[in-house]
Write a structure and sequence with these properties.
10 strands; single chain; disordered N terminus
């Protein structure tokens, strides 16, 4: 999304390591944890700093989910902000937590035009290709056998279905997409490799473009194994038309499908009617995934309103998660897990 705001959130999160915030104790749900009510992976994006500094955050995450996605810790701008100087501390902490709590990990993300260090964008084409290959293979090899699935390329299409004019496309052409999938597969043949994007929940020019690309890559023998549907929704807009059928048509290409970043923002302050609509949207996302046999994962972009990215990017909107600031389950949680 917005690069400066996301980088700000990384810095804010890291400062939390300096001290433990005091919050009211979370309220346990009367239902079974989300991870126990489905055979699909149920995950959340997480931040290493909050895992380390907020015991209640860690407790709810551990109880409810069986998959985690590093929110920022595996992005290029974090792991190699300065060329040749790697910082794996946050990513390692999340992977270590996952191993300790018997969770899987979704790696996010290998190639993205945002949160990209300036030094990468400044490289000439030949050098950029070498550096891109090294980045992909270095990161995937580091976590070989520890990452269930990778978001390999992220947000490469415009809303009208044309290719986003990123530095990678400008200097390497459209073929870089197939290359990075092949490099990632060579580094860890067991990991499932995804293309990931937003506003592709329903049938539209952008989702058509993703469909056509995946179909083409599969015909070329490129090791793409899944489509990630982000599902950042807002109750100010209608629920995406044809969502369930769209997941099914992706799956019919012979790939897995995953809901990778679900949240449903509402105009603040929330009230009962808004929360009920939000619950309906979350329920439709959940039910649609469960209606498609190859929809293998339902992951939310954070699980508590305490740490949602939404208010920073969409002023006047928020309360987008399944749990409130005090980690109490909201109607959306109850709709999924009655």
């Amino acid at each position: 999304m917005v690069r400066a705001i996301l980088l700000k959130r990384v810095l804010v999160a890291m400062t939390a390591l300096a001290g433990v915030a005091v919050w009211p104790a979370p309220v346990a749900s009367a239902s079974a944890p989300l991870k126990n009510i489905t055979h699909r992976y149920v995950g959340s994006a997480v931040a290493a700093a909050y895992l380390a500094s907020e015991p209640d955050y860690r407790a709810v995450l551990t109880r409810e989910f069986d998959n985690v996605t590093p929110e920022n810790e595996m992005k290029w701008g974090v792991v190699e902000a300065v060329r040749g100087q790697y910082d794996w501390s946050g990513a390692d902490a999340i992977v270590r937590y996952a191993q300790q709590t018997r969770k899987t990990v979704r790696g996010h993300t290998l190639v993205w035009h945002s949160q990209l260090p300036d030094w990468v964008a400044a490289l000439p084409a030949d050098e950029l290709r070498r550096v891109l290959r090294d980045h992909v293979m270095t990161e995937v090899k580091r976590y070989k056998g520890k990452i269930r699935a990778w978001d390999v390329v992220n947000e490469i299409f415009n809303e009208d279905g044309t290719r986003r004019d990123t530095v990678f496309r400008q200097k390497l052409g459209d073929g870089f997409v197939a290359d990075v999938f092949r490099w990632a597969h060579a580094a860890d043949p067991a990991a499932k490799l995804y293309i990931n994007d937003y506003n592709i929940e329903g049938r539209n020019p952008k989702s058509d473009a993703v469909y056509d690309l995946v179909k083409t890559l599969r015909r070329q023998g490129v090791p793409i194994g899944g489509v990630g549907v982000q599902a950042h929704l807002s109750i100010q807009y209608g629920f995406p038309d044809g969502y369930r059928a769209n997941l099914a048509r992706f799956a019919a290409l012979g790939v897995d499908v995953a809901v990778t970043e679900a949240d449903v923002r509402i105009p603040t302050p929330p009230d009962a009617a808004k929360l009920a609509t939000q619950a309906s949207y979350f329920g439709q996302l959940w039910d649609g995934c469960h209606a498609v046999s190859r929809c293998v994962e339902f992951t939310t972009w954070g699980f508590t309103d305490r740490h949602s990215w939404v208010p920073d990017v969409f002023p006047g909107e928020g309360a987008a998660c399944l749990f409130d600031e005090n980690l109490r389950p909201k109607p959306a949680y109850t709709r999924i897990n009655p």
